[in-house]
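B., you asked whether I could sanity-check this one before it goes into the benchmark set. Here's the sequence:
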Amino acid sequence: MENNISYTHKKSNRAKRVRLSVHCDGRVVVTSPFGLEQSIIEKFLADKRQWIWDKIQFFKSVDRKVIGTFSTKDYWENKDKAFALVHERVRFYNKIYNFSFNKIFIKNQKTRWGSCSSKQNLNLNYKILFLPPKQQDYIIVHEICHLTEFNHSKKFWALVEKILPDYLDIKKEIRNFRF
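And here's what the prediction gave me:
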């Protein structure tokens, strides 16, 4: 394992903390808030060295075709199918919860599977279509539960667990799926 890690450093007004990503081509990107001292970033990288190395080795060992790359064209070709899936599953699960919501939007998000807005809109990534059904349901149930609990408190997780008692296992599995 190399001691020096070559990386790109991006500073962002929106960043609240240091974020690290390893891309399938081996690039390492660190995103941080403006004004953060370089020594903090270097320590962060040193602490994550093994994780970075493991990710780089993983990407070298995997057939590049297996790692999905999505385009705007993919979004437009799959948006309606994703909406139909999400709409049907939201109706199914909301019969149990009976929460009110405004609209469902299918988006082409880069880093999120879904979100719930303060206007009670459910926003889901069209790439949910490419997940196994168990992971699809987890994301949908997760966002439905945000309609009443707009946080990740114990009450929120109890709502998720009501439908998905194995939600922790599913949550871990989703981390293996990349955009």
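One thing to flag: The two ends are 27 Å apart (CA to CA). Otherwise nothing jumped out at me.
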